[in-house]
Predict the 3D structure of the following.
Amino acid sequence: MPFTDKEILETVRMFELETLDIRTVTLGISLFDCADPDLETCAEKVYTKIVHHASTLVATAESISRDYGIPIVNKRIAVTPIALVAAASASDDLVPLARALDAAAKEVGVDFIGGFTAYVHKGFTNADRALFESIPAAMAETEHVCASVSLATTRAGINMDATARFAELVLATAEATRDKGALGCAKLVCFCNPVEDNPFVAGAHIGPGEGETVLNVGVSGPGVVRSALDRLSSDADLLAVSETVKRTAFKITRMGELVGREAARRMGTAFGIVDVSLAPTPAEGDSIGDILKLIGVDQPGAPGTTAALALLTDAVKKGGAMASSSVGGLSGAFIPVSEDATMIEAVRMGALSLAKLEAMTTVCSVGLDMVAIPGDTSAATLTGIIADEMAIGMVNTKTTAARIIPVPGKGPGETVEWGGLLGTAIVQDPGRFSCDVLYRRGGRIPAPIHSYRN
């Protein structure tokens, strides 16, 4: 499908005036052939393979940015879940592999590397358990490494033993990175129904169904959607709003596929998917909250917010699907609270609560993302928050996630500054009631009846 002059001029306006960018170009690298009974040898193989395949990633992204005038904000790597790679070593400490990932990321110049990952939604292998126990040290000792775990799926149900242990490790990670405002937890996420081609951190990794290497692209355009809705008459009905978002998502996706295919061609690898998730930043005009206000709510969190977010997410998916046969990842609308200036203000004003955020996650692309809570929150309460989010994904057959940050020394209403893309968080109150008995029971919450379709 050729690009017209009008499309090109529209795209230039999107870049120059509406903060459109390629949020990430993410190279997926399979590490299965790096497995070795000796962990240090495995770590050496991991480092060598990543550097070999990703050595030109940053230069390629920068050359495309120059040639096409397209801003490419992040360059990232995603690898095979490390618990699978490390199984042959039988080691109970996988921090050396995290260090190898970090060293490789620094060598090739990428922003983040994802894949310190385990799938435990139905049970633990020895390697899974080793990865779990290595998370706090790995997050504290590395700068670029992101960790993720699968705690639930619609087919398997929720592994509550793993959920409770993960909550404990989140608190341990917060304490291990206390001097950085619990920053380690910003690189740590859990999933229900994780996808194998997610280019966005902290959940980026490539599943066993992926090829040797693959180039995935994440495009973000909240500012473009906001601008399009701003030009729409306030008298327009919601069908017109949906059509406007859908047409805008179509244009964004076309641009993302152009970059992805060209980057894959220059690197001699396969093009995978374009993820058209609207991902905000703290920059002015680059906000999902602003879009929700233009759709018709006073503030994010007001009555009608979940309905508006459902409309937005659906329209983005439809526009992306019309523009490309390679739409993948998560594709919809992200609501990372600390990374969205308008949503930060909504929390400050009392419009957006933790309970309302949970309701919004039933229709958004992911879930509770970059939510700060008091550092003295109990493991039982944190387990309950995470389990609720996993249940939403399990029952609704959708991907949900929880990236919760217990900030040591901070209480409800206080602020923590991380700067850059991670932004500012206002610590939210999880309430005074807990779920101690649920936390102690353990076991597994069974899969829902509709999971038995075959």
Remarks:
- The domain at 5-192 is CATH 3.20.70.20 (Anaerobic Ribonucleotide-triphosphate Reductase Large Chain).
